[in-house]
Design brief:
By secondary structure, the protein is α+β, with helices and mostly antiparallel strands. It starts with a helix and ends with a strand. It has 4 helices and 12 strands.
Length: 197
C-alpha cells in the first residue's frame, strides 16, 4: 500500500499530466483550465486510509501512458468518489465521479471544476444539460457520445471534446469501461443541471 508521501508525488504527476492533456486539446476551456489547475500540483488532498471499492482496475490498466497509469493507480483508490447510482442495467454502482478541484472539490476553486469520471461497460448516461462549458478528455475506454440530436459517435482514448452550455449530451459504453478527466468553466452551479428520465 502506498504511503502519503508516495501518493503526494503521484498526485503532482497526475496534475501535470492532466494539464498537458488539456493544454493539447486546442480548446479555450482546456487551455484556461490547464493554467488554473497547474498550481494545485503543489498541494495535495487528504487521503483515505482505506481504499475505496470502486472497480477501477480495468480502466486504469487500460491507460496506454505509463506515467498516467502509474499515477492513477496510486491515487484513484484513496480518493472519495461520488457514486451516482444505477440507471437500468446493473445492481452495482455503474458510474462515479470525483471533483478534485472546484466549489465542491477536494481542493477549492470558484473559477473552474476539474475531476475524474468513470462509467462501467454496458451503461447508458441519458441526455443531460447544464449551463457550464464542459471539456472531456478520455484516458481509457472507447465510448459513444451524443450531442443534441446527432448520432452517437465513438470517442477513443486521447480524444478531447467540448460540450457547450445548455447543449444536450449523452453517453453509452459498450464493451469497455470508460475513464476520463473533465472540466467545467463559466456557470459552475449544479442548480441548472437536468437529466432526462
Amino acid at each position: 500500500m502506498p504511503n502519503n508521501s508516495s501518493r503526494n508525488l503521484h498526485w503532482q504527476q497526475f496534475i501535470h499530466l492532466a494539464c498537458a492533456r488539456f493544454a493539447a486539446s486546442n480548446t479555450a476551456i482546456g487551455i484556461e483550465v490547464a493554467s488554473l489547475l497547474l498550481p494545485f500540483s503543489k498541494t495535495h488532498p487528504t487521503w483515505n486510509d482505506i481504499p475505496n471499492t470502486l472497480p477501477l482496475a480495468a480502466s486504469i490498466n487500460a491507460i496506454n501512458d505509463d506515467e498516467f497509469r502509474k499515477a492513477m493507480a496510486q491515487i484513484g483508490a484513496y480518493l472519495t468518489w461520488v457514486e451516482r447510482g444505477v440507471f437500468s442495467n446493473s445492481e452495482d454502482v455503474n458510474r462515479a465521479y470525483i471533483e478534485l478541484v472546484g466549489p465542491e472539490g477536494v481542493k477549492f476553486s470558484d473559477q473552474f471544476r476539474f475531476g475524474i469520471y468513470w462509467q462501467q461497460a454496458h451503461t447508458f448516461y441519458p441526455k443531460h444539460r447544464h449551463n457550464a462549458l464542459e471539456l472531456y478528455h478520455i484516458i481509457s475506454g472507447t465510448a459513444l457520445w451524443q450531442r443534441g440530436d446527432q448520432d452517437f459517435k465513438p470517442q477513443t482514448p486521447g480524444a478531447s471534446f467540448e460540450h457547450l452550455d445548455r447543449i444536450d449530451h449523452a453517453l453509452k459504453t459498450k464493451d469497455e469501461d470508460l475513464l476520463a478527466i473533465w472540466a467545467w468553466r463559466g456557470d459552475l452551479s449544479f442548480d441548472n443541471y437536468t437529466m432526462d428520465a
